[in-house]
Amino acid sequence: MPGSPLAGRDAGLDDWAKTQDKVLVGAQTGEGGSYDLWTIELANPSPPFQLTSTLGMTEHDASFSPDDSRISFICGLSGGLWVMN
Fold first, then answer.
1. 39 close to 26: Cβ distance less than 8 angstroms
2. CB contact at 8 A, 30 and 17
3. pLDDT digit string, tens, across residues 21-65
4. What is the DSSP letter of 24?
5. Lesser CB count within 10 Å: N end or C end of the chain?
6. Which pLDDT belongs to residue 3?
7. How far apart are CA 1 and CA 8, in angstroms?
């Protein structure tokens, strides 16, 4: 996505929202290979919205809740489960 903060970064789709036209992606955000989470509105893909910003930590395996009100994901090497509104 040219002009996007995600342009040229390693990114992968984690989940599609169930009740909205939105996707959840994990994208490499800098040095050390850590990944942060972003949402992208499909009707207006630019700009994506950054959900996490954790230097040296990686969030992965993210998923929307059934009503899209929360997002769960695995964070860091310890594999802790996190939930955010």
1. no
2. no
3. 898 888 887 666 678 888 989 888 778 888 988 877 888 889 999
4. E
5. C
6. 55
7. 8
Specify the range with the lowest mean pLDDT, choosing from 54-58, 69-73, 79-83. 54-58
Positive or negative, the CA dihedral 47, 48, 54, 55 is negative
Rounded CA separation 84/21 (Å): 19
Outline where DSSP puts E strands in the chain. 11-16, 22-28, 35-41, 49-50, 59-64, 71-75, 80-84
- Lookup result for tokens 């002009």: 3
Q: Cα separation of 78 and 9, whole Å?
A: 24
Burial of 51 (0-12, 13-18, 19+ CB in 10 A): middle
In angstroms, the CA 70 to CA 74 distance is: 14
